Amino acid sequence: MTLNDSSNINRVPGRDTIAGVVYAVSAFLIWGISPIYWKALRSVPALEIILHRIVWSFFLLVPLIMIMRRWREFVLVFRNLRTLLILLFTAIIVGGNWLLYIWAVNTDRLLQASLGYYINPLVNVMLGMVFLKERLRPPQILAVVMATAGVLYLTLYYGEFPWIALTLAFSFGLYGLIRKIAPVGALVGLTVETLLLSIPALIYLFYLDRLGQGAIFRVSLKLDLMLMGCSVVTALPLLFFTLGARRLYLSTMGLLQYLAPSCMFVLAVFLFREPFTSAQVLTFILIWTALAIYSTDSVRYYQRSG
Asked: For the chain, what is the total number of helices (H) and then of strands (E)?
């Protein structure tokens, strides 16, 4: 999930806006309910799932960029060493983010994952302040302070740092920050990233196969298809997101992005029955209040500047 491409938005009213909302909502809903898919693969180690996600995503993304006429942009990346090195670094970050997320889902820590993606927009604000020297508006400062208070309360109450939530939030925030430097779109960038990661992924998958430990082509056709289907769960929401971001205001995309962690939250509490204590209730209330303040300020800011 990333809002990198939403800066290139064509603000077109009418049908185009409706289509943008449909695309964006579809993307965030797929991301939000994807834990159901990862749970169905919990018999496979998280690392192996990620390796298949990387490899099969690359094979799906290549024809996608050809259909969308991005092949020239894809080839040009390999002629620019600086861009290639940036994407190598972001590939490592996003690969680690995917691995931690799927591990969290399949070890019944989806609540922490949802908390991480709720915090992510506020982390982006903090990273912008530190690295891009952006000045925070007073409501943004208040939102960051409230979110920090929620995390600290949870830490003090349990005596355990919510490292999964914060690692997911900061790794994804850092990923988005660095991707701003690379002059490539989300689809082409992800294709290059999966290509770079596919080389070691394929080596390790062949190694597992030689040891007789790999899951694919050994258990069932259903499992084989689900491992291959990781590519669809990765590429389809990204494509919908890109199509939606081109048609909507940045502030609209910013509000819609909360659909994904909200779906994760509902799944964690009501479907997967993860423990939801009073301390977590208070933490989420603080985070939700912080996001309400942040979102309201963002909408007003873009209305004034638009």
From this structure: 12, 0
Q: Looking at this protein, which amino acid is placed at residue 30?
A: I
Percent of residues, the chain, with pLDDT higher than 90: 57
CB 170 within 8 A of CB 161: no
Enter the pTM of the model: 0.88
The token pair at 289 is 């209040």
Residue identified by tokens 């938005």 is: 9
What does the angle CA 6 – CA 8 – CA 10 come to, to the nearest 5 degrees? 100
Question: How far is Cα 271 from Cα 269, in angstroms, rounded to an integer?
Answer: 6
Burial class (CB in 10 A: 0-12, 13-18, 19+), 61: buried
Q: Closest Cα to residue 147, out of 124, 180, 175?
A: 124
CB-CB contact of 233 with 224 (8 Å)? no
Contact 16, 247 (CB under 8 A): yes
The type of residue at 180 is K
Residue 149 near residue 285, CB atoms below 8 Å? no
For residue 116, give the nearest of 298, 295, 283 by alpha carbon. Answer: 283
What would the pLDDT profile of 263-298 be if each residue is shown by its tens digit?
Answer: 999 999 999 999 888 888 998 999 999 999 988 888
Pick the closest to residue 144 from 293, 251, 282 (CA basis).
Answer: 293
With contact defined as beta carbons under 8 Å apart, do 2 and 230 qualify? no
